[in-house]
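Known limitations

Structure tokens in this collection are predictions and should be treated as such. Users comparing against experimental data should check residue numbering before alignment. To illustrate the layout, the record for Assimilatory nitrate reductase (NADH) alpha subunit apoprotein is reproduced below. The input appears on top and the generated tokens appear beneath it.
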Amino acid sequence: MTCTTCPYCGVGCGVIATVGKAGEPSRLHIQGDPEHPANYGRLCVKGSALADTLGLEGRCLQPLLRDGEGRTLAASWDQALDRVATGMRRIIDQHGPEAVAFYVSGQLLTEDYYVVNKLVKGWLGTANIDTNSRLCMSSAVAGHKRAFGEDLVGGNYRDLEEADLVVLVGSNTAWCHPIVYQRLMQSRRERPEKRIVVVDPRRTATCEQADLHLSVKAGSDVWLFNGLLTYLEEHGVVDTEFVAKHTGGAAEALAAARASAGRLEVVAKACGVPVAMLQTFYAMFASTRKVVTVFSQGVNQSSSGTDKVNSIINCHLLTGRLGEPGMGPFSITGQPNAMGGREVGGLANTLAAHLELNDAQHRQLVQDFWQSPVIAREPGLKAVDLFEAAHDGRIKALWVMATNPVVSLPDADRVREALGRCELLVVSDLFADTDTAAAAQVVLPALGWGEKDGTVTNSERCLSRQKAFLPPPGAAKPDWWAVCEVARRLGFEGFDYQSPHQIFDEHARLSAWRNDQHGVQRAFHIGGLAGLDTDAYDRLRPCQWPVLRRGDSTARLFHDRRFFHADARARLVPTPPRAPANAPDDEFPLVLNTGRIRDQWHTMTRTGRASRLANHLPEPFVEMHPYEAMLCGVQDGTLVRVASRWGAMVARLRCTADQPRRTLFVPIHWNDLNASDARVGALVNPVVDPLSGEPEFKHTPALVSPFPVDWHAVVFSRSPLQFTKADAPAYWVRIQGDGFLRYELAGRGLIEDPQQWSRALLGVGQPSTWLDVHQDGTQDYCAAALDADCLLACVYLSPRADLPSRSWLGRLFEKQALSEADVVGLKLGRSVDPADDAGATVCSCFSVGRNTILDAIRDNGLTSVEEVGRCVRAGTNCGSCQPEIRALIANARLAENA
Ligand SMILES: Nc1nc2c(c(=O)[nH]1)N[C@H]1C(S)=C(S)[C@@H](COP(=O)(O)OP(=O)(O)OC[C@H]3O[C@@H](n4cnc5c(=O)[nH]c(N)nc54)[C@H](O)[C@@H]3O)O[C@H]1N2
Ligand SMILES: Nc1nc2c(c(=O)[nH]1)N[C@H]1C(S)=C(S)[C@@H](COP(=O)(O)OP(=O)(O)OC[C@H]3O[C@@H](n4cnc5c(=O)[nH]c(N)nc54)[C@H](O)[C@@H]3O)O[C@H]1N2
Ligand code: SF4
Ligand SMILES: [Mo]
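Generated tokens:
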């Protein structure tokens, strides 16, 4: 039994992993850690499915080298590391250290993150190291620094429970931070007077139980919060003593707010929200002292992201609402170690231990501590600029670690081009075939979750251990080790670590070093964790920094009203609002917004392997208001092309009135390995916030048009289909099933001989039986290959999109032997027994489909989520599907009353 931490979102849930004996049917058992203060035993659907993602299939198990002709050769670590070190050395000698760059990730452990920054900033002497946190939290970082003098999240999850009002801004908490959302909902069940407000252009699952949803115009948040700031002042809701003693800049911030948002009508127009709704929100905020404002990517990922952050913090500073239980601004982090990365100075403009690269005293402090030969003097290139520099040849060597930029960066086709231009591209990943690793000359096999060992910090400053409970597979090695080996080969001293424990100890010591009245005081201080022996490090229980003495844990910052600007005051920052960088126009009239879905994690390299996570939303899609779809001449359920000035993609249209008019929403997860053309990153405007450098992922002018096809097919197969880019159908997506793969296909032109086509496509060799059925009078065709009674593969082809139920077909593949009725069903293209068709998955934990839930609601007159849970189990494990179940109940009742 191992206590560790979930590798997905920034909630940072504690996990207990128990490995059974080899040969046991379910060898690995994952459960929530009842004692972890983030989740107290709960896990969301992604966490619950962790065991399904740990198989070694497809893993990169030894270093790979690629030659000029694109051939891939397996290599030893010595060969691979030598190649990296010599390549870097040559480029540095010829072009200087600025020609080398690193692009790392909030999914690294703190120890990995620390050494790679030490190597780059202290030994190579460049700051050309940036991280995917640039795409994620950098606006929050910049906003915190402006307001507090240091990148600080003062509060904790309990504050959300204790608050009387929680405002969720640009955060689909129900899907992206499910356990925090559940804690919030639980606290409201206990205190029904508690209020929840959601600020999001879309009506998301998070809005479902909100008291108020402000469907603001994309990018208008600064108007909204400037309006609130003015309202608070006008209504005398100002903590004058706090403002006078502990802040600066209030007059300037108020003047800027009044100038832009002094009248409710102006704000209402800018935000596209009725005046009455604004009034309700403002009055609620004004009259509630215990208010927490949670924000994430709807705020950060904007060309005015930093101002959005400060406009929110301003309202808390003016009212003195922070530093006490149940109140404060709360930036909720995305990745498991977004915070740890910030602590070790992972960004191109920061230094280790929350120190600043543009401050000579800070640089000196770090260099003295490291005893390093140099220290970077200038901030390095931020992510988007870094890849641009690779594109134009300034960066010649690039090492990408634990991130997949060909999918996740804006203008992603250009990023792929940029990678192709690097003289040396090194990628450390678990897989050698990700869209990014596929371009690398050197692929270094990294240890993944369950194999690697170190620490992470979650959204509430809580540091916990990630621990290994599986043996290292093949030759895979931890990322910190690969970095140290390259450092040694470059002739650098200071990288002789034997274990992550030693690195952690150094990191803890640096946080405390000269962190006192005579040195550079900073809040980040984990000196109390220095000097742990290996055993104590292994047994470390979650604790929140600052940790000045062993055993400390700090639930909340700012209770002493002390901030980290030189005068110890906080700052209100004037935030004159700006519209998003590029407005829609005649050519690209719609606003493309991008984000996450409930059951997938980022570029799907891990969650895409779990069949139970695949069925909730199996295909890449674009959401659009039905009226807008009508205007664009596209139909619900059909394939459409989405295009912007930067690129294009193909996805299935989902019409929903939850999506505001003139906007689109596309999820970020699909990539070139599992879909024909669905990387939304290719479309995203690469414009960034001028202060933080964070891209405007939520606002790109775009266009939707039909993607005409002549035929549709669905294929289920026990082995992968073998098509190449050249002979692939116009549209395809691959979906993981339990022991099989499902493909959705669509193509152009007539398939003259469906039988020949299906044989070639399925490539199953010589099964004992082929069923071929041409439906009379139609062009519908189906073929199925059986070995004895076991289904090997089947394909349904039709000029229409209404192909057989996928959940029913999936069930047939789970059977060892088909019954006669099943075979009849296969030929008919539908189940003989309607009860066999569970419908699209709603509850992924127990694989409960929509039809099953609707039947239960209808047959038993169920009226609550709890009743549905008791009847069919749906919603009783992680609870992430409860918003959907609630909607199904409401729809069923509406239908009944119609
Ligand atoms: N299931 C799942 N969970 C995840 C992840 C995942 O991949 N999958 N990733 C993790 C990571 S790294 C991150 S960063 C977090 C992100 O967590 P979130 O920020 O909650 O997720 P997003 O879906 O990116 O965006 C949130 C919302 O911002 C809204 N939005 C867009 N434009 C605006 C605007 O102008 N103003 C406002 N107020 N809102 C706007 C979008 O409509 C969207 O609903 O999730 C983490 N959790
Ligand atoms: N359009 C659009 N794009 C976005 C966003 C958006 O909202 N819209 N959000 C942005 C945000 S907030 C984020 S955080 C990024 C996330 O984007 P990415 O970081 O690109 O996404 P991941 O799929 O998490 O990539 C992690 C990679 O690391 C590998 N990996 C996992 N564990 C390890 C390890 O221990 N070591 C090593 N070496 N490799 C490992 C995985 O296999 C995977 O290939 O996407 C950003 N891109
Ligand atoms: S909420 Fe889910 S994904 Fe996030 S840390 Fe907890 S279990 Fe993992
Ligand atoms: Mo993120």
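For this record: DSSP finds 30 helices and 36 strands in the chain. The pocket of molybdenum atom (ligand 4) is lined by residues 136, 334-335 (CB under 6 Å). Please report discrepancies through the issue tracker.
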